[in-house]
Amino acid sequence: MGPRIQEFEQAYAEFLGCSHAIALSSCTAALHLAYLAAGVGPGDEVVVPSMSFAATSNAVLYCGGTPIFADIVGRADLGIDVADVSERITDRTKAVCAMHYAGYPAAVDSLRELCDARGIALIEDAAHSPSADLDGRKLGTWGMAGCFSFFSNKVLSVGEGGLLATDDDGVAERVRSLRSHGMTSGTWDRHRGHAETYDIVDLGFNYRMDEPRAALLLSRMRRVEDEVERRRAIVRGYRDRLSDVERLTLPYTDDDVGRSSCYVMPTLLDASVDRREFRQALSERGIQTSILYPAIHEFTEYRRRYPDVSLPRTEDVARTQVTLPLFPHMTEEQLDRVCGAVSELL
Q1: 3-state helix vs strand vs coil in the chain, percent to 5
Q2: Residue 65 DSSP label
Q3: pLDDT above 70 for 185
């Protein structure tokens, strides 16, 4: 963690408009440290979405806490539902985590008011949403901490990596210590003669980012805004071509696209469509699709732990969602090819 890490952290903090950006090994590491910084431990609860990647809730379990799953708004908005969150907060709740699905803002303005009124932390899982905003404020800066991913399929990608953003000096200090085994000095400090040895003052982790990855991120950041604009143009192209296709729902609205990072292109099939057959037919035409996401609470590990969780809106979307191809160098010809195949099959 030398000069390139420091340069990247400063650049990303300026990019977001926040006080601290702390480079980490993954977004999962960022979530884990955010929950720890919020004081989550055994007996504590964190309200989380089930419409997310499992890391969002797994990291609560790493702390010894209990994830409390909340439903999404519905088929038009796949973000966590504020009203449902409010119903699930108890005197054991330490934090609420909002995941910005596909780069579209969850209602973090309302969630922040709710969390502030209840005296609990708001954590943002911003893995999908670099450069996305709500009311001109970057996602990942609304809560106590925002957690970003640089995994190989993300908007800002370098294979692996993550980052925690915060305006809280105390949170930043604790996260910087925990990411490197709770050491009082790092290898770079000792290499430059700024420290002779080190102490261990906390039970930390090996959650550090390396210098080559930080250098790649600094290079990628110069292109990310242009790539997000291109992603938005492709999503608008999808919406123009598919808005009238029967048995297909496009979540969010045309106006929402301009504030999203457009990480993926989600669609929802009607119940009458066999999703497996539909995806297989697209695959046979050379078109890859994916499912973002299976509901976390329906995974075997979570059913074993929490067998009684029921989230009707999340379960509906988890059974009908199909993600279509989306990448910044996607051509108009490829877009026509995908949309033509979807229209034909439906």
Answers
A1: 40, 20, 40
A2: -
A3: no
